[in-house]
Design a protein that fits this description.
Largest sheet: 5 strands, mixed
Number of helices: 9
Shape: globular
CATH class of the largest domain: Alpha Beta
Bound molecules: zinc ion
Strand content: 15-25%
Order of helices and strands: EEEHEEEEHEHEEEHHHHEHEH
CATH superfamily of the largest domain: ATPase, nucleotide binding domain
Strand order of the largest sheet: 3-2-1-4-8
CATH topology of the largest domain: Nucleotidyltransferase, domain 5
Distance between the termini: 22 Å
Helix content: 25-40%
Number of strands: 13
């Protein structure tokens, strides 16, 4: 009997590290979870990764692990390190690929950041399967993005390319976590839309369910629910968010000219509330030559286990290219 060729997708988060064994078409065979902060020593953590991978392989009959894909905050594809990730317990530059590769010398070990992993997941398992040029934008707590051109992720000179979230869309605008002012992320993330609600409340007397709440008491999804229930402040917040996002996407198109732009994450789940104003602003601001030609679509991974599929897709993408 043939062995089942599988890859292990590992998603490293500040709270949990998730593992899944995944085949070429996206079936997840077994999953596992460990606590990330439990391992205060990075080498202990690497040993734990090795133990889980070995255990997973023995849990699937006739399985052979032919790749390991790792999605991590600040994961650098070019040099295989995680550098200065604020939410992880280890400091400095962590050579995770080199350390794991020692235990699995005949297996490809591929690292990338979470947004790029999700973008490659869209290419291997989602709506970008037949596309060579697309843009993937995550509207989560922050705004992340991955640019794929000619079927290849754009990594840039230092491996960190594709930071659409830190394009400045408003001169002297809101202060961003990066320290600068007016970044896209401060407007079109889950946190950004809350800041917009707060500003709108301050500007008008319009009644709203958010009128007597502080920013900490509600989430972006509550704004979507309120908008669906006719809350004018919430509706306007989505309108403003979409206008800013559409403008930034129209500008991004001028650089790589994607076939489509995929939106993913909490805000993208708001459906037409975010898509309609984004598409209207996108078409209004885009160069004439591309008008009505570039699709803005919801990610097809939205309701799937993107952290495992995205991580696994890093290894499958490498293997599919015939690099192994
Ligand atoms: Zn920024």
């Amino acid at each position: 009997m043939d062995t089942k060729k599988l890859v292990v997708g590992i998603d490293i988060g500040g709270t949990n590290t998730k593992f899944g064994m995944v085949d070429r078409i996206g079936n997840i065979y077994v999953e596992e979870n460990i606590s990330t902060p439990f391992y205060s020593d990075f080498d202990d953590y690497i040993n734990a990764l090795k133990d889980v991978i070995t255990k997973l392989e023995s849990n699937v009959a006739d399985a052979e692990i032919i790749g390991i894909g790792i999605g991590a905050p600040n994961g650098n594809h070019n040099n295989g390190t995680i550098a200065l990730a604020a939410n992880l317990p280890w400091k400095g530059i962590l050579p995770i690929v080199a350390k794991l590769q020692k235990f699995f010398p005949n297996t490809c070990v591929i690292l990338d950041n979470d947004a790029n992993a999700a973008a490659i997941g869209e290419m291997i398992y989602g709506g970008a399967a037949k596309m060579r040029d697309f843009l993937f934008v995550t509207l989560g707590t922050g705004v992340g993005s991955g640019f794929v051109a000619n079927g290849e992720m754009i990594y840039g000179y230092d491996g960190l390319a594709g930071e659409l979230g830190h394009v400045i869309v408003e001169k002297n605008g809101r202060q961003c976590g990066c320290g600068r002012y007016g970044c896209l992320e401060t407007y079109t993330s889950a946190v950004g839309i809350k800041r917009t609600v707060s500003e709108l409340l301050a500007k008008s007397n319009e009644d709203s369910i958010f009128r007597h709440k502080s920013l900490d008491e509600f989430e972006a999804k509550n704004i979507a629910e309120a908008a669906q229930n006719g809350d004018k402040i919430a509706i306007e917040a989505f309108q403003i968010t979409g206008e800013i996002l559409g403008l930034a996407l129209a500008n991004a198109v001028a650089i790589t000219v994607p076939e489509a732009i995929f939106l993913f994450g909490g805000l993208a789940k708001a459906g037409s509330l975010i898509f309609d104003p984004t598409i209207a602003s996108f078409e209004k601001n885009i160069l004439k030559v591309w008008k009505n030609k570039i699709k803005i679509l919801p990610s097809e991974l939205q309701n799937k286990d993107v952290s495992i599929l995205g991580s696994a897709s890093l290894a499958w993408n490498y293997i599919n290219k015939g690099a192994l």
